[in-house]
Fold:
Amino acid sequence: MAMQSKAQLLTEIHTLLRRRYKPKPDRDPSRLSVLTAVVFGICHEDTTREQANQALSRFNDEYFDWNEVRVSSIGEIQEALAGLPDPEEKARRIRRFLRQMFSRTYGFNLEPLVKKPLKEALKVLKTYEAFESDFVTATVIQHALGGHAIPIDKSGQRVLERLGFPENDPSNLRSIVERAVPKNRGLEFAELIEELANDVCKAESPECPRCELRKHCDYPKNLAAAPPPAAHPKTRTTAATKPTSPEPAKAAKKSTPAPTKAKPEIKATPAKAPPKKATPTPPKKATPPAATKPNPKTPPKKPGKSK
Structure:
């Protein structure tokens, strides 16, 4: 695909999204300080602009200054990031940036970088770990340094990839978009892509029939042409569970009731043994009464004579 056709496609995408998602009337055109833009970029990555603004407001309301945030614990900083994805990691990145800044400048003022050329300012800022994220870098350029940059996080990269911009490197993808979208429409374009990503073009179960860009997107066609979820693992597991030959099944059936038959035999043996041992001994023969010896004094009676 030629570069001009990509530019035309992005222009048409912008027009359709602007028709679907009205530009926000509460957009603040004023610039942020460099420090605030860094914190805002960390909060805004992989979430919505409204959630990032709420987190930034909590920092301003609950903390006296950025030095208090620097000396706070990760758990305390997480409370200001409630509702954001992965708040613990974001809290670590914010505190790490503030500590690096304080160790280098003994303060929290990076505004002298605004007066320098953009390349020189970025050369200084790239020494901070927070600028390893291309999204944070683009956010600072757009909101603090006055340059042309369109922040693209993972959700925006997912949308543009489905629309025909398969770039794995976020900086390369951002360069393509920035060449096609002019500076005065960069902020609006980024917000419209964000709206689409959080509305219908989700990572899981995208609602393609409701998408304004369905005619320009090949993702539904590829999804329909893709083979259905493989039922092969299920059939394989079913075949694996069934015995291949009937002999093991018969052996299993025979071996299964064997323990149940053996138990009654073991129990019956001690039940019969006690009667044999406990057979009652035969009663002793009664000894006949001893014959009374005749008294020599009394003469024996003679039979036949009765009184």
Observations:
- Residues 235-275 have pLDDT under 50 and may be disordered.
- Residues 3-225 form a domain with the Endonuclease III; domain 1 fold (CATH 1.10.340.30).
- The chain has one domain: 3-225.
